Amino acid sequence: MSLKVLVAEDDVVNRRYISEWLLSEGHECVTTGNMTDALKALNKQHFDAVIADVRLPDGDGRDLQQHLAVRSKLLLMSGDAPGTGNDWMHKPLSTTDLSRALRGLAPSPALADPTPAEDLPDIDDDAAGTALGAGLSVLGGLRTLLRRELLRDQQQLPQLIDKNHPPEALELLHKLKASSALCGLPRLRNASQHLHEQIRSESLSAHALRQWEEAVARALGRIKPG
Q1: Is the pTM of this model over 0.90?
Q2: pLDDT tens digits for 6-15?
Q3: What domains does the chain contain, in order, with CATH numbers?
């Protein structure tokens, strides 16, 4: 199930690592580098979980607890491991640590149903900036790389499905979910996630595949060749 997670971490490498893992697992993610921006994000929207470093440049991540809704969970991380239990994670984090920390959390009702494709933009620079967590200076290069991958995936995925190779198809979509989110392509990410879920549950529909193919074509039409 898709969760909405806020990451408050001042180390850009660790922030990028956590956000990419969350996105690859099908979760929604907003990243911040300090307490001030984390509080602004919490005031704007609900999050199912907040992953926060204890030592932020302008405060203590533990203080975010008083700003969380009842349904939200605060997950703390520290290189010094000052706490114990499932709510504390010791840096450097592993994907096992992250998976264990989020296990059992349920998404809010508002996130239970996916956003209809027609309500999603093809390209969203603001979403890309949030996902990257480091500005848009590298966005053009990332989108050029993604365009090359899409030209290949556009041909490869239908062939994998026709030849009944679900593991390879799932791996392709797994990577595409993360890369399309990082590049600010909400429609493509939504279509890739939906198709991934259908293949994994062995309930693939022709409609889902057509939606994915349309999302790929629209993305290719919006990304300028590098």
Answers
A1: no
A2: 999 998 888 9
A3: 4-111 (3.40.50.2300), 117-222 (1.20.120)
